[in-house]
Amino acid sequence: MRRATAASIVSLVLAAVPACSSQGDAATNANGGGSSNKDGGGGSGGTGDSGFLANDSATVGDGQMSDGFDPDAQCAGINVQATRTPANILFLIDRSGSMNCNPPPTTQSDQCEQWPKRADASQPSKWEITTSALKTALGGLSQTTPLPAVGIAYFNVGDLCGYPDTPAVPVQALDVAQVNAMTISLDSTYAFGATPIVGTVMRAYAYFDDNATSFTGNRFVVLLTDGGETCDPDNTQFLVNKAAEAAAVGIRTFVLGAPGSEPYRAFLSQLAYEGGTASSATCDHSGSQASVGDCHMDMTLPNMDFAVELQKNLAAISANALSCELNVPEPPDGGTLDYNEVNVMYTPSSSGQATTLPYDDQHPCSDSSNKGWQYADNHTKIVLCGQACADIKSDPQAQLSVALGCQTQGVPK
Length: 413
Fold this sequence. Notes:
The chain is an alpha/beta fold and 413 residues long. The protein has helices spanning 6-9, 22-31, 109-114, 126-141, 176-187, 197-210, 236-248, 265-274, 306-321, 386-393; strands spanning 2-3, 78-81, 87-94, 149-155, 162-163, 169-173, 218-225, 251-257, 297-298, 325-327, 342-347, 355-357, 373-376, 381-384, 399-404. The protein contains 10 helices and 15 strands.
């Protein structure tokens, strides 16, 4: 346990590289550096000839792909189950005393600050709503593919301004044992004390950075608070700067503002913006007024139901944490991969009927009109674009596969 002071956190510095989110990198790489051209672009084997010997091949389905796609009646290929880049998520949960209050309209935030107690015992407190919503979110995440790794930390530690050096439950694969460990942890934690946001988030960044080799895939810090920094307020801008550095090395920061955080919207908005999870490119992160900012997930607006908004936002975070990136599979038995003979198959969980996503380099990958995929990172990655990415993220149980050895199906030129 540590206290969040300037002296203790200034020494923790993440390597600074040009700031851009990993989502932005995917879109940029998919369209830049020549990697969006499936006819080679620096990749090997793009000759147009099949990269497989006959004895290395297996028919894809019955030779007829879905959507009426029959690239070649004689075509034989390999259908490889695709694995999306996994997510690693560390939840940072505010357990300060004000979380004991009923949320508005039962108890207004200013009243809660004066008397941080539950006014109506028949209604749940912010803490009870939060723990319930988290359990629901964990249940959903545990059913996604690939299985994410998830952990949890609380602030404060010691009922004052202490912050955790390591998570209460370390980030590990969200199997049944991990879900049970997190549920037990949530059930055994109570709300009391101050709000050391700066130290807690900095230690979360350090945890991911120090253990980078242990985490394959994308890394996310999810901060939920019903207030602002109460232990080290002079270093909030320091934290905002570090959030940008963390995003630059692949650690993005989601921020959820619960009722009580109204006076700190500017800080929370800047933290989300610099952390790479802004609600929009034009959201207000100016910091012009302490109570103005809308880049974070703000659950304090008039007529909002905290419980409903929290469930919705946690579901959105879970979806956003799912990746739209696939590794280009290696051809079997050391064969040569022809990049003109790669197709991506998508099977929705609702129908179980596979469809073929087209290769589309006619539109930017980030464009919602793009319903297909592109190559990225010198043909080592497949990036699902636009609406295709959105569809995949909204269907965590969907299956993806990559078919090798049949002519790539693209959008009409």
